[in-house]
Amino acid sequence: MQIPFHKSDVGSAEINALTAVLRSGWISSGSKVLVFEEALKKQIGCRELIALSSCWAGLFSVLKLFGIGPGDEVITTALTFAATANVIEQVGATTVLADISDAMLLSAESVEGLLTKKTKAIIGVDYAGFPADYHALKKIATKHKKKFSSSNPFHQALGRILVLADSAHSFGSFPIRKFPIRKNSSAQKPLSRLSALSLHADIGVYSFHAVKNITTAEGGAIAIFNKRLRPKAALAQLRCFILHGISRDAYSREKDQKSNLRASKYPRHWEYDITAAGYKFNMTDMQAALGLVQLQRLPRLEKKRQAIEACYAKILSKSKLFRMAGNHLAKNMQSWHIARHLFVVELRLGRAKERDLVLQRLYAHGIAANLHYRPLYTLKYYKEKYNFTATQITKRFPKTEEKASRILSLPFHSKLTKLELSYITSIFQRVEDEILKEIQTKH
To answer: What are the chain's domains?
Structure first.
């Protein structure tokens, strides 16, 4: 049996939605994107939102919006996909890598020790569906705001270091903390919108790549949470920025042409201006049509993943070699509903050698397990540019070194069948027994 690490859950509803867009005669950015943005805004609970071509494009756009570039520093976790740090490099800023916590998330303590007068942003990374502790990161940014200075109007409005979320893994996760209505009462009331917003970063950027909890094939969204950022003004700037700096896009001009031109704000409907040297990061109506169907299916897709999670958790509860990776140990997890994106396990015994052996044997049985991730400082570009010594790595990234050498990810997607899941758990237990015997023989 061959089981891929991921398979996109796309069916007839998505195909029909795409076909309708193709037949409409308007397939680029148009009405479907606007409808998708409103649906996402409601789902996430943010103040403003814009959909675009990828999560990377969103992170890049936010850093550019805040004028972050050469001479600035941006702190992020050493355990993430390269895109998080690549975007810092692409704007010309310096990437400052921090350690993780036991929960596999950016360590607020490590971040605080790396802050300088050059620090302009902290990028927290949500891992496997679990959000970083943005409340703690914003608290640190506020504590050190005297170190902060910027001539950028949006950064000045914020008045401190920007806390930005790389939420590529966590679409569908949301704040749920509840508070007692009165003392000694078990009755609860849901978290207020204001309290929910406080648990998010200042801005979050999501991914709808093919492997994510919902997909538009490629795509992403920028969600603005902090009202101090003048959300409507920021949105207008971003909307212009992601499409060549154009003042009115083709869809707006087309719409004006079809409307009553005398009543139109733009009687010369064909005109536009270029207000900045922008980029090409727009989402298309085809992508948005796919996303709208996926968004409707999100509860059912999540329910399937929850069943898979329960099956894996049951096996791990009896395991002597593996345990669930520590995401659930984070203090802020009690405040969140988690829409798990990956199922990451951690070896109790052994390190990278034994972990790689597990991966090899699972592959030999047709199971495409994976690794999330190699630390950034071990990758060629970052290794050569920042040139950490072995001593520096041990001292600066103790948790990253410990965790990254022990983790692996099992197939975890809504297209897994019961037969495939049964096969995975059976082979996983067989491999565990083999590795345990080999470890015991060595000792």
So the answer is: 12-288 (3.40.640.10), 298-442 (3.90.1150.10)
